[in-house]
Amino acid sequence: MSTITADDDLDAPAEVPERPIQVMDTTMCIHDLRIDRASIVAYLQTVPIDKQEIALVHALEVGITELAARRERFRQH
After folding, report:
1. 29 CB-near residues (< 8 Å, 6+ apart)
2. The whole model's pTM is what?
3. Are 30 and 23 in contact (CB under 8 A)?
C-alpha cells in the first residue's frame, strides 16, 4: 500500500519517455534518429554539409506534399 505525503508533488507531469521525433503544435524536434535508407543517405551525401539540414527539410516538405496528394486521390476513389 502506498501513501502520499505532503512532500509528494501531485501536480508534477508524468514522466514521458523521450522519443526520437517529438511533434508539437507548430514545430517538430528530431534528435538521435538513425536513418538506414541508402537512397536518403546517398542523396544527402551529394549536398554540401552546410546545406544538408535545409535539404532534409525540403525533402520532407516534398515527400509530405506527395503523400497528402496520394491520400486525397485514394479517398476520391
Report:
1. 21, 22
2. 0.67
3. no
Collapse the DSSP code of 30 into the 3-class scheme (helix H, G, I; strand E, B; otherwise coil) and give the result.
strand
- Residue 77 CA to residue 71 CA, distance in Å, equals 10
Instruction: Give 3-state DSSP helix, strand, coil % of the chain, rounded to 5.
Output: 45, 10, 45
Give residue-wise pLDDT tens across range 19-66.
899 999 999 999 998 999 999 999 999 999 999 999 999 999 999 999
| Statement: residue 10 has pLDDT above 80 | no
Closest-CA residue to 56 (of 42, 67, 40): 40
Based on DSSP, count helices (H) and strands (E) in the chain, helices before strands: 2, 2
